[in-house]
Specification:
alpha+beta; seven-stranded antiparallel sheet; five-stranded antiparallel sheet; 12 helices; about 40% helix
Length: about 325
């Protein structure tokens, strides 16, 4: 049998050109473990890949000859953790299967898989995929969405394109590392959250899901004292009136909801050892409060003790 031609060509930055199916298998096993792979040809197999890792998140662009990738039940059980695998088809076609569903991605389409369950991909020759790997907590309410969205082609191409543009910008980071990736990931996660929630309930988001998204939006902008109900309504893609109706069902107003998220965050920050030598007001300013008096009144009304009393009650203080 003719020996496989197998080597990896050096390329600029995080771009690699891999020749030979065996080196491609090795690359995938190192970077995306517990996957089974096959291909119709092996000796002349070629793949181009860009990959960046960002602390429990990864971005990749893969262009390859025809191949199949499977995560079996055994592989899913052996993997260290489940992740969301968001896939944008940039060129060609890819078949995606999970949970008994199959979708065929064409250029411009996007879908998602849950790596904690079996799935498989079949890429046609010269197909190109952009892939984003995220932890579950990146999408609020994922446990309610997972069985409903995986291996479905998502219809909101405008939001999908915007999220992809932000993801692709991360590949321009010099080498692997976080850099300024955190705000980009926050924006991408919010766009994907809206995309997935709307896909499962195109007419009206469930109240619980909407509150999850609202909570993430407030946390993402918690240092902005100007964060308002109008901005929150825009982030949730609902009218101001609909937003107030939603919070009325929970005996809240949007303003009180924003304040409670801020107060919970400050109370947690006051307990953090790293903040032990910082003043209470300094910490409160970090979370969008603008003066000591109003913050102290709100804190005591909510938790029954003043901020200083809460801090002094902590073990070791």
């Amino acid at each position: 049998m003719q020996a496989l031609r197998s080597h990896t060509q050096p390329a600029p930055g995080n771009h690699q050109v891999i020749e030979g199916f065996r080196p491609w298998q090795n690359f995938v096993n190192c970077n995306f473990p517990w996957l089974e792979m096959s291909a119709s040809k092996t000796q002349d197999f070629r793949a181009d890949v860009q990959l960046c890792n960002f602390d429990h998140r990864a971005v990749a662009v893969i262009r390859s000859d025809s191949c199949q990738v499977r995560r079996t039940g055994f592989g899913a059980r052996r993997a260290e953790e489940g992740l969301l695998k968001v896939m944008w088809q940039q060129n060609g076609r890819t078949a995606v299967e999970q949970d008994g569903r199959e979708t065929l991605l064409h250029t411009g389409d996007v879908t998602i898989c849950d790596t904690a369950r079996p799935y498989q991909l079949a890429m046609e020759d010269h197909a190109q995929l952009a892939i984003l790997m995220l932890p579950y907590e990146a999408i609020p309410g994922w446990e309610r969405l997972s069985q409903r969205v995986c291996a479905h082609t998502l219809n909101d191409r405008t939001t999908a394109r915007a999220a992809l543009a932000a993801v692709m910008a991360l590949l321009d980071q010099p080498g692997d590392g976080a850099g300024n990736a955190s705000p980009v990931f926050q924006a991408v996660q919010m766009m994907l959250s809206a995309l997935l929630h709307c896909a499962t309930a195109p007419d009206k988001l469930s109240a619980a899901t909407t509150l999850d998204v609202a909570h993430q939006h407030v946390l993402a902008h918690i240092d902005d004292p100007e964060l308002s109900p109008d901005e929150l309504a825009g982030a949730l893609h609902v009218s101001r009136r609909a937003l107030y109706r939603l919070f009325e069902e929970h005996q809240l107003t949007p303003g009180r909801f924003i304040r409670r998220v801020r107060l919970d965050a400050v109370r947690e920050a006051l307990a953090a050892p790293d903040n032990e030598h910082r003043s209470i007001l300094e910490i409160a300013l970090d979370y969008g409060f603008t003066d000591s008096a109003s913050f102290s009144r709100a804190f005591k009304a909510t938790f029954g003790v003043s901020p200083s009393e809460w801090r002094h009650s902590l073990p070791g203080r």
